[in-house]
Amino acid sequence: MNKKLLLLMSACLISTSSAFAIDVSKAPKMKMTTEIPAGLLTPNDMDTKIGKLHLEDGVPTVETAQKVYDYLDFQHGVTSFLSGIQIASMEAFRRGLLTFGPPNKTVVLFENLMDSKALWLTPNTTSVYMLMWLQLDDEPYVLETPADVLGIIDDHWFKYVADFGRLGDDKNKGGKFLIVPPGYKGKIPEGYIVKHTNTYGNWVIWRGFQKDGSPKPAIDLTKKVFKAYPLSQKDNPPALNFVNASGVFNNTIHNMDITIFDEINEVVQTEPAQGQDPEILGYFASIGMEKGKEFKPDARMKNILTEAAKVGSATVRTLISRPRDEAFLLFPENSKVWTNPFVGGSYKFEIDGVSLIDARAAFHFYATGITPAMAKDFRGKGSKYAVAYLDKDMNPLDGSKTYKVNIPANVPMKDFWSFTLYNNQTRSMLQTDQRFPGIDSNQEGLVVNKDGSVDVYFGPKPPKGHENNWIQTIPHRGWNMLFRVYGPLEPWFAKTWFPGDPELVKS
C-alpha cells in the first residue's frame, strides 16, 4: 500500500479508533464455540524489536501495518544484499574489464604479474593472470585455449560453466571450446568441447605459471594460442587486442553501499532468469529489481535500502572475520584464527539439498572464481587457503603493530607456500611501499630456522635481522592475510600440520 495512503488512513482513524476497536472479551459464547489452542493466536498488543504492534483481533492497525512493511522491505533488502553479492561481484568484474577495451576482442594480461595497484578480490602475487569478458549474442563462440593453465569460465550470475587447462576437459592440452548461448537452437558442429551457458555475459579467466621465476613463457603461449571468435568466423578469426595491465590501476570490486543494488539490477535486466534461483529473484523483485521494469526506489525505499546495505556489509565482514560456525575453522582443535574461505566443499554451496547461505555470502565477499575443482581435495595439485583476520588473542590485525607467524618444518606441499596481505576494506592487495605485499618459500634470501621452520614477520618496519622474512603493513590500518599451499599433501588434509597463529611481537 502507498505510504501516503497509509498515513491518510491513519489520520482519519485516530479520532475514531476507539469506536472501531474490537473488545474480544465481550464476545458471546456461541453454540459451536470451542477452545482455541493458545499457539494459534496472535496477541492484540506486542512489544517487539520493531516497536509496539497493535492488532484488532488479528488485523493490524494502519500504523502497525506500516511498521511491518518497513521491516519487511528492510529484511528483503538485507537478504538481497547477501544473496546477490556474487552477482554484483561479477558485474563489477565486467565493468572493470571493459575499461581496457571492448568484450570479445580484448584480452587483459598481467605480463609482469599483478601488483597492489589492481583492486581485485584476494589475488596472489605469483600467478600469471589473464582474462577476458565474453559477450554472446545469438550464436556460439569459439575459445581456443592454451595448455598448462588453470582456466575457468563463469557466467554473469557467477555460476560455473567450464574449466580448461590442467583441470579442464581439454586434459591440459589446450582445446577448442564452443560456448553456446542461452536458448540456441542451431546445429552444434563436431570437433569442439561444447559448453552451454545460461547467460550472454561470461567471465573467462586463466592463471599461467612462472617458469624459472619468469611470467614470460605463460604470456607468450597465450598470445600465440588463445583465440576468441564467433562460430560463423571460424575460417577467418578476428585478431585480438592483448593489453598489459601490470602496474595499472583497475577496479573490479563491487560496491558495499546502496549502489550494490544497481550492480545487481544490471544483471537482472540484461540476463535471462534461467540459471538463477527463483526465490532469490523473488527477493530482488520484492525491493523493485524485476526484469523489464525500472529500478527506481522512492525516498522511503532509498532510506530502507541504504540501511539494508549497511547491515549487509557488516554481516559479510562478520561472517568472514569472526565466524561463529565451526565449519569455517580449518584447524578447530588447534586454532580459532585460521579460517576456510570456502566452506562446505560444494561449488554450488549446497549440501544434501540445503543452501549454505552464510558460506556463499562470505566467500563471494572475499574471493572470486567458481569451479567444481574447489570442492576436490587434490593431493599434490592445485592449492589450499587459510585466512587470518585476527591474532592468537582474537584481536584484529593492526598495521601499527608487528606480528610473527611460525611456519613449521616439512610444509605438506609439492610446490611452494606463500603469504599475501590484503586491505580489510577492499580485500585487494595491501598497498604499501612494497610492490608485491607477499612472501613465498621460493624467495631468495628467506631465512630458515635450525629446526627447519620459518618465521615470517608482518609490521610497518622490519625487525632487525629479519628483513628477508618481512612483509610491510600500514600504520593505523587493518589488514588480513591468506596463507596458500600449492600442491598440498596429505598432512594438510589430515590437519596434522598447520601454521602457527599470528603472535604480537613485543617491541
Automatic annotation (TrEMBL):
Q: Which Pfam families match?
A: DUF1214, DUF1254
Q: Which InterPro entries does this one have?
A: DUF1214 (IPR010621), DUF1214_C_sf (IPR037049), DUF1254 (IPR010679), DUF1254_sf (IPR037050)
Q: Which domain of life is it from?
A: Bacteria
The keyword Transcription appears for this protein: no
Q: Where is the DUF1214 domain?
A: 384-489
Residues annotated as signal peptide: 1-21
Per UniProt, residues of the DUF1254 domain are 113-230
UniProt cross-references to Gene3D superfamilies, sorted A to Z: Domain of unknown function DUF1214, C-terminal domain, Domain of unknown function DUF1254, VPA0735-like domain
Keyword set, alphabetical order: Signal
**What is this protein called in UniProt?**
Uncharacterized protein
